[in-house]
TrEMBL record, chain B:
This is Multisubunit Na+/H+ antiporter, MnhB subunit. The chain crosses the membrane at residues 7-26, 38-60, 72-95, 115-134. Residues 7-129 form the Na+/H+ antiporter MnhB subunit-related protein domain. Belongs to the CPA3 antiporters (TC 2.A.63) subunit B family. GO terms for cellular component: plasma membrane. It comes from the Bacteria. Keywords: Cell membrane, Membrane, Transmembrane, Transmembrane helix. It comes from Serpentinimonas raichei. The lineage of its organism: Bacteria, Pseudomonadati, Pseudomonadota, Betaproteobacteria, Burkholderiales. It is found in: Cell membrane. It is a multi-pass membrane protein.
Amino acid sequence: MAQHPSHDPSASAMSLGARAAYVLIPLLAFACVLWIAVTQPLPLDITLPWIPALGVELDFHIDGLTLLMLLLITGIGTAVFIYAGGYLAGHPQQNRLFILLTLFMFAMIGTVMADNLIVLFLFWEATSLLSFLLVGFNHEDPKSRKSAQQALVVTGGGGLALLAGAILLGQIMGTYSIQEIITALPNTEITPALTTALVLILLGAFTKSAQFPFHFWLPNAMSAPTPVSAYLHSATMVKLGVYLLARLDPGFGDWMMWQWTLQLVGSLTAAWGMLLALRERDLKRILAWSTVATLGTLVMLVGKTGHGATVAVSALLLAHALYKAPLFFVAGNVDHGTGTRIIDRLGNLRHAMPWTAAAALLAGLSMAGIPLSFGYVVKDVVGQAGALGAISELVKFANTIFAAVAVAVAAVAAVRVFWRHPGHNLTPPDAHEGGLALYGPPLVLAGIGIVLGVFPFLADGLMSLAAHAMTPRAEAVAVHFALEFGPAALLSLATTLAIGALVFIYWDPLHRRFDRILAKFDRSGSLAQYERFINGIPVLAAHSTRWLQGGDLSQYSLVLVSFVGVFMGAALVAGWSQWLWPAWVMPSAGFIGACVLIASGALLALFQRDRLVLLLSTGLVGFGSGVFYLYAGAPDVAYTQFAVESVFVIVVASVLLKLRQRGRGQGLEQTHSMRGALPVALVFGGVIAVWLLVVSGVEFNPQLHQFFGQVSVPEAHGRNVVNVVLVDFRALDTLGEIVVVTLSFLAAIALLQAVRGHAKRQRALDKTKAGGAA
Amino acid sequence: MNRRVVILESIAGPLYVTILLASLWVLLRGHNEPGGGFIGGLLAVTASVLWAVAHGRVAATARLPYGSAMRLTVIGIGIGVLSGIPALLLGLPYLTHLWGHIPLGFTELKVSTVIIFDLGVYLAVWGGLAGYAIELLGMDEPDAHDDTAADAAQELRA
């Protein structure tokens, strides 16, 4: 909770004008979306070429679902930008927050507009990364950093699964276009590969939308500043998983596996999220758990079939954004005005914060589903959709818990904090209302929710467009929201309100009971498993480092050589029947001479203990290879080999000599041999030798050879083919190579300077010591 | 400073020039005979290594063109990059090499952007690898300016 905006006037605060300028960005985007909605025929397709060679284009597709998401992203975005201007006024890093929020908004816009799975994935990952930066905005707080890491590991890991699933799906379907895929999917045979792709995509969607068992990251992400929580963790980003599922629903919707998984996971998340909300004392975390529960309900609804379900999904997406974002703003205002979000320390705030109280009440009405709020309309639609189809009993049960606890949570946020609650009260003495930027956005958003509740037909057009986009056969969906006051609707309303009121009244005893029961699961819950996983990484790394990198160079060589030996040996054995042995060719005198040089150098090195002589004898091997190249018709390579070998031997010899001057690097005192080294070396040498024989047995493909031989003189005016290739045909590669030479020089210089600096300090230290002794 | 080796020092001068001339020859003949910028540059590196062994790190660095390995290698890259520009001006793909013939009466001289590019490779390899080798060879040598100055100041105070 250490996220109080600092009011230090000396900090480089943003001017009002700069904040207003930032608000213009989402506002303009919102205007653009409205313009598209009013003037353009939907669906609208836009294509920009990007990587044509891979079939990846920047395909954008705007239909009703995208439009709904775009309206949420830019509309709630405008409110969030205004709110952030007031909430973090005077914060030295407010500018950073605005930049991150702007980037995030564009990443979101890209995700919901993309029609290409790969493009969608890229924007999706961008939202995960920006969420990491935004959750960790208060990066000096270790709790924030930990939450940010948690959010990134969970959603980023899910993102990887999504990428794998997207590629697999694209390969199976032969296209990456989402529209083409969902059109073709119902007529596609169900194969194990397709099921794997589906499971991977579900993993990506479930992690993003905090579904069980990945639900734990969302409440922990509440250490973000309130504008971020309202924007990312209630209104937009966490809905991306739902969005992706809804997007793919026309394709996968008929699969039993799809329906069952979504309904089971969604219902479980909805019920579990609401139960966990009862455990919390922190207003923001309570709201976060109810968000998790709503996401579960949305996922469950996507898993349902029929028009009613698609309408319910779009209506709940809109309604939730319209009440949850204001409630987060309210929580932020309470924190801002009193310095705490713990509900035990709050009460009777309506006198000190009248506007915030009004906003809380309006949003609370919608969340609780009281008549004349949009929440009531939506609850009705959701209830009808949930009662249809398979496993309806479980769904109905989860739905009841969800709706009842939603009433209680709304009452906690709106009534308990702002009105007197028996047993708890006392307004914190310093409670105060914030500026217009703080209470304006929640009031307006919650107000829209009420307007839509009184005149529900206003949402008809948008909802039918969105539902239409989620319908398999793309038939138009007629939507007529109306205020229903039938006996069934009233009965269900009365039941929910009664249970909700009971939960609200007995919140504290329930809280204590639940805390005690659920604490038993803490050690085996998914958060604990996650912690175990994260803490296991350094332990595993330490183990593997100790095992593989003991610090002994000969040990490293042994590991490397045995790995390569076993790996290549296995490949050799596996393809044994296919290898051809090369024909015997009588070697020339030069070949034999080179081989003698190489072999004698290697054998000499074997029995040397003096490092300098060892170096010289390995130098023999290098020069022997040079001679070999000369006779093999590669004089350029031979030249290079000679020059490199000379420089290498001179430099290393000089370093060794200097070491020797200081009494170090004499070499090994006694014969040193490692256990198992000899057989490993023999096997490795044997494997490589057989490989070389086998490789030279393969018929040489002279195509390139002939091509360059023919065109070298007429096209590049040079007879030295090697040089012509280097400086003409592949000149750009060569340019890259000399840049690499320079870069490695730069890197080495930094290292050598550091060593020299150390040596200099050592010398100075020695000198002062000597001076002191004298 | 290390112990001086008189024979090496006196032979280093003529050898340095000879190796550099040889490296230039290898560079220039590269297009038709074995050789080229990479090999020429490596040969030039051996010359610098020789100077570093004979006269030390500071002297060898000073002896490099432009007096600094870093400058030399960067200039090499610059020349390589620039040699592709003329092709761009003619609307050809970058690094398409242009050839021209200058008649000299008895024979004609072929000139090309290829040799400019190869010169860039030569300088970049020379600068990068020679700088690396010289630094390694002179690891224990104090810097020319700062250390001696500090020592002198310390002696004065004493």
